[in-house]
Amino acid sequence: MRQLEHFPNLLTMFFTRVREKGDAPFLWHYGEDGWEAQTWREIAEQVSALADALEKLGLQRGDRVVLVSENRPEFCIADLAIMAAGCVSVPTYTTNTERDHAHILEDSRAKAVIVSNQKLAKTVTSAALLATHCKTIIGIEPMRIGQGGDIQFHDWTALIEAETPDVDARAERCDFAREDTACIIYTSGTGGAPRGVMQHHGAILHNCEGCVAVISEDFGWKDEVFLSFLPLSHAYEHSGGQFFPIGLGGQIYYSRGLEKLAADILETKPTIMVVVPRLFEVLRQRLLKTIEKQGKFPNFMLQRALDIGEKDYAGSVPFKDRPMDVLLDVILRPKIRKRFGGRLKAMVSGGAPLNPEIGIFFHSLGLTLLQGYGQTESGPVISCNRPKTGLKMDTVGPPLINTEVKIAEDGEILVKGELVMQGYWRNDEETARVLKDGWLHTGDIGYIDEAGRIAITDRKKDLIVNDKGDNVAPQRVEGMLTLEPEILQAMVVGDKRPHLVGLIVPDPEWMREWAAATGVPNDEAELRGNPDFQKAVSAAVDRVNKGLATVEKVRRVILADEAFTVENDQMTPSMKIRRHVLRDAYGERLNALYRH
């Protein structure tokens, strides 16, 4: 069993892997001729050259540098170069508005921005003109941006080509301590303005060490391949999809996006994927629809797989089902695994709660799905489900190594260890609220089971307390609703009310099928106003209610005007619904449900 060395900082970990891997492929992107790789040595030379260039531009240790880029090799190069120069990286979402960028630039007091393309650069430049500290913008792609104020624009390629990198010398200069700040990651803000979380080198290294232990002990560590899909500006992907692979000496492929994700998985054959629950829900629906169209026998085999999978998850497969289980291992499960590249060790879900039924579904089809738990303030991973301790899908597994977890008197989960952030950037009041005596107050409610696994019941601030004082976890109810083929997204409310009501986004594909079957024109606005269509959605809600406790039942629903998206500000970039935004938009209509 291999363990990750105890590195003093993230750059030492990176340069150690460079010496070990040399000309082996490291970062892959999809180019004109298909997938193209850059080696560890090539990436190290670019990191060293860019770090030299940043220093020549006048950036000093501790200066903040904002990084605005989609997932691509240059993101990793820039992130490492910023840190190698002694600066603090500030990864930022490409979906941010000008106002968002202006807030982060001003709040972080960044001295420079690295931005990937012309479209993003226009927004960032406008934001930079509003900020008072940022005077340097570096464009990764060639771009033409009108000069403004005293901002200086620089070309990425020209900066790197002007340097003669000395990788060994740069590695020697990376004498940072684990306590030094590596990056400031702004939370995506489900309830207000984003706060800057200061993550030190040790916090991310602690995460890497813990995750490597999971892979090494439960699956075996060997030639790992990652497909990077989630935004690298999110702490989950930043640590789990970038620094974790670096620690493993693995390869990283950068996905072309959701539309190409299925093809990317087939072509790159990842061994580990870091994803969010919403993606699993989409993949589950696609698999169900694909098999449904294949006829009676495939559907029969799928149903048998799900039945046997539930029994296996519960404890063991009965003797009478074992011949069919063997047959499924020959006929069905290999085909499913092949759709995921054929060598996937585990898919790790994080960023939001995973409905246990989704986990059991993939388990039944022969795919290992692990649920992790954490938050930006903890590096971000706190715990992860492990086959070794038993995959219980309604838990998030035991804490990572060297991580303390306890439950406060009010049920809140508290965390202690090197993974805990240094605090919120320039926000002592909020820091004092969540960090007390070294314990991170997560804001999550839960308990620790007899096997030492953490179970989350809900966000402390999201708990619904009805007019009788009963507590209801909205995420559980919403997760059950979105399992129905008719429902794409859902939000329930009911604080200080007699029961729950809900906001529903119908599934677009189901809408088209319903319209075709009933002869109603496939017009979204017309469908939403159709009484029969509304009854069909309500029928799906009624099916869910049968499996819910009385206090959890959703009595009435309305249909949303549009899907919840990052673009309309109703979801965070990590795919969590922004409850306060939805309540502002639909509050009156939801309240009206209680008057009828």
Structure description:
The protein has 596 residues and is α/β, with parallel strands linked by helices. Helix content is 40%, strand content 21%. The protein has a five-stranded parallel beta sheet, sandwiched between helices. The longest helix has 19 residues. The relative contact order is 0.08. The model has no long low-confidence stretch (mean pLDDT 91).
Set out the fold topology:
Blueprint: H1 10-21, E1 25-31, E2 34-39, H2 40-56, E3 64-68, H3 73-84, E4 88-92, H4 98-108, E5 112-115, H5 118-130, E6 136-139, E7 152-155, H6 156-161, H7 167-173, E8 181-186, E9 196-200, H8 201-218, E10 225-228, H9 235-248, E11 251-254, H10 261-268, E12 272-275, H11 277-292, H12 296-314, H13 322-331, H14 333-339, E13 346-349, H15 356-364, E14 369-374, E15 381-384, E16 404-407, E17 412-416, E18 423-424, H16 428-434, E19 435-436, E20 439-448, E21 454-459, E22 464-465, E23 471-472, H17 474-481, E24 487-493, E25 500-506, H18 508-518, H19 524-528, H20 531-545, E26 554-559, H21 579-592
Parallel strand pairs: 1-11, 3-4, 3-5, 5-6, 6-7, 10-11, 12-13, 13-14, 25-26
Antiparallel strand pairs: 1-2, 8-9, 9-18, 14-15, 16-17, 17-20, 19-20, 20-21, 22-23, 24-25
Helix pairs in contact: 1-9, 2-3, 4-5, 8-9, 12-15
Total helical elements: 21
Structural class: alpha/beta
* Residue runs with pLDDT of under 50 for 5 or more positions: none
Q: In this structure, how is the largest beta sheet organized?
A: 5 strands, parallel
Radius of gyration (Å): 25 Å
- Spatial separation of the terminal alpha carbons: 63 Å
- Looking at the structure, what is the overall shape? globular
Strand content: 15-25%
Strand order of the largest sheet: 4-3-5-6-7
Helix content: 40-55%
The total count of strands amounts to 26
Q: Mean pLDDT across all residues, rounded?
A: 91
